[in-house]
Amino acid sequence: MLKKILIANRGEIARRVIFTCREMGIETVAVYSDADKAGIHVIEADEAVRLGTSEPSESYLNIDSIIKAAQKTGADAIHPGYGFLAENADFARRCENEKIIFIGPPAEVIEKLGDKTVARQIMSKGGVPVIPGMLESESDFKIIAQKASEIGYPVLIKSAAGGGGKGMRVVASFEEMEEACVSASSEAAAAFGSSAIYLEKYIDQSRHVEFQILCDQHKNAIHLNERECSIQRRHQKIIEETPSIALTPELRDEMGKAAVAAAIASGYVNAGTVEFLLGPDNSFYFLEVNTRLQVEHPITEMTTGIDLVRRQIMIAAGQPMGIAQEDVKARGHAIECRIYAEDPENDFFPSPGTIEYLKEPSGPGIRNDCGIYQGCTVPMEYDPILSKLVCYAEDRQSAVKKMIRALNDYVISGIKTPIPFLVDILKSQPFESGQTYTDFINAHFKDWKPASYNAENPSNANNMKNAENKADSDIAACIAYIADELCGRPETKALGTASKEAGFATPWQTLGSWNR
Ligand code: MV4
Questions:
Q1: For atom 5 of ligand 1, which residue has the closest CA?
Q2: Which of 82, 107, 106 minimizes the C-alpha distance to 17?
Q3: Nearest CA to ligand 1 atom 23
Q4: Is the model's pLDDT at 231 over the cut of 70?
Q5: With bands split at pLDDT 50, 70 and 90, how would you rate the model's confidence at 165?
Q6: Per-residue model confidence as pLDDT tens digits over 363-413
Q7: Which residues pair with 250 in a beta bridge?
Q8: Is the CATH number 3.40.50.11030 carried by domain 204-331?
Q9: What H or E segment, with its residue span, contains residue 10?
Q10: Residue among 170, 287, 295 to mutate when testing ligand 1 (max atoms within 8 A of CB)
């Protein structure tokens, strides 16, 4: 078994990996940038190594510094988390060359699947349904237009290097084709350093349904059912759930088999995700493989009872799977809400700053994968995810109710969060009835504003989760005021005077050196 793992990441995902390592008796090494010297992962890990200044290129993206940190601390493996270097084939290859185990697929697999046209070729050969379109990239718009007229408009131009919606253009007619190709390839070049584009038939009214896969080094491959991730904003997922309301047991079985076929066709090893587009007629098509542990993996852990990080580590250590497909049994319903440091009232603009007060929700079936603590600072340099709130219950309706309750119990002050926006989505009729298509936010929540708004004190109004009417918001304002008096928010009054007079200590007094 592995003895020591370096975690090449930060925030909630680094902490998530540390927890499992601790349970497995594996030592952990955190790496950090200057912005993160008091980061949660530095506090939680057994050891911590400074990488460099706050810029990602000097820290979490710096391959040399991370390899050096692993060598210095004697780590035998690196867990990349998600984002940063997680899907960087050069990094995985460098680990292989330095005899450090990369907890993820082989570099060659990351590379192949990272090229969307190569991935389409592999899947097409492996019998996995792909969206009608081109299997190779093309720079001549006339050839692309030729293909478009064969498959029929509307079509979608995609970046071969891409993913995440960048360099993507829906084209409705021949007239729009040239301009769409030019702008898509220049956007792709700027975002991914490659202008390569290709064509697919555009599938309207579709859902994003992805399957979790696990593959060991001994050619065993299984799937752990799906996650429905259709609720996205600008290609950023915000709410994920499992099971998908759109799948029958038969369709789940069929798509699961296609996901396993995708794993086998690509020579996949470790945990991965096979993304499908599910059409309104229940036809499904391969989209891409994400060669990493995903942000939304906890909902699969909740319904299957399988710790995916533990499985990743066991697979990386060479152990056989030990789970047969028939042993995977999902129960109940799980939902995840992503809590970002962003302002839903101001076009989701980033909202970095200091967490002045934090109260996490709790109770049966609630899991909060949280990367912040009271008094910490949320830096502006990185992905602004604060935590992932996950609720598990017997069925979808109970899980939704639990999530609304948990969001209402969640207090984060000092920065803006989308909690009121999330509550409104979960309470909405289109969500309740499962109309979770990829255009959900645009169709139902484009110009969202909070239901009630306290013009006299907008910053307090932001933290009122239950403000359904003026009376509620007034009560919430009073509570927030009293809470401020008791906890002594530094910008409102001297630290904790009221409670000192009353004869008890506040968190701000007891935090000591943690109170930065
Ligand atoms: C599509 C599509 C419709 N037709 N491909 C967006 C990101 C990238 N991973 C694939 N995406 C899409 N590909 C065809 N042929 C619609 C989308 C899409 C989408 C997919 C998943 C989740 C949200 C989305 C939002 C808009 C468009």
A1: 202
A2: 82
A3: 438
A4: yes
A5: confident
A6: 999 999 999 999 999 999 999 999 999 999 999 999 999 999 999 999 999
A7: none
A8: no
A9: none
A10: 287
Atom of ligand 1 lying closest to residue 275 CA: 9
Closest CA relative to residue 381, chosen from 45, 79, 83, 6:
83
The conformation of residue 351, written as its DSSP 8-state character, comes to: -
For the stretch 427-450, pLDDT in tens is 999 999 999 999 999 999 998 998
- Paired tokens of 313: 């580590």
Residues labelled as active-site residues: 292
Mean per-residue pLDDT of the chain: 91
Q: pLDDT tens for residues 177-189?
A: 999 999 999 999 9
Among residues 251, 142, 232, 285, the alpha carbon closest in space to that of 440 is found at 232
b/e 185-198 (16+ beta carbons within 10 angstroms → b): bebbbeebebbbbb
Answer whether residue 469 shows pLDDT above 70. Answer: no
Six-digit token string for 50: 């400074």
- 404 is written with which tokens? 């609304």
Four-way CATH pick for 132-201: 3.30.1490.20, 3.40.190.10, 3.40.50.1000, 2.40.50.140:
3.30.1490.20
Q: Encode 299-318: b = buried (16+ Cβ within 10 Å), e = exposed.
A: bbbbbbebbbbebbbbbbbe
Nearest CA to ligand 1 atom 25: 438
Kindly give the distance from the C-alpha atom of residue 12 to the centroid of ligand 1, in angstroms, as a whole number: 27
Average pLDDT score over residue span 133-159 = 96
Task: Determine the average pLDDT of the residues in 244-260.
Answer: 98
CA of 229 to the centre of ligand 1 (A): 11
Whether the pLDDT of residue 128 is over 80: the answer is yes
Lining residues, ligand 1, CB within 6 Å: 131, 156, 163, 165, 200-203, 206, 208, 232, 235, 277, 287-288, 438
Residue whose CA lies nearest to ligand 1 atom number 12: 165
pTM of structure: 0.89
Nearest C-alpha neighbor of 69 from the set 116, 9, 13, 120: 9
The single residue listed with the structure tokens 């007229």 is 149
Is the dihedral angle over the CA atoms 330, 225, 229, 349 positive or is it negative? positive
Which amino acid appears at position 236 of this protein? Q
Domain boundaries, the chain: 4-103, 132-201, 204-331, 339-450, 462-510
| CA 107 to centroid of chain Cα atoms | 22
DSSP string, 427-475: HSHHHHTT---TTHHHHHSTT---SS--TT-HHHHHT-TT-SSHHHHHH
Mean pLDDT to the nearest integer, 189-195:
92
CATH class of this structure's domain 339-450: alpha beta
C-alpha 389 to ligand 1 mean position (Å): 25
**Are 4-103 and 132-201 in the same CATH fold?**
no
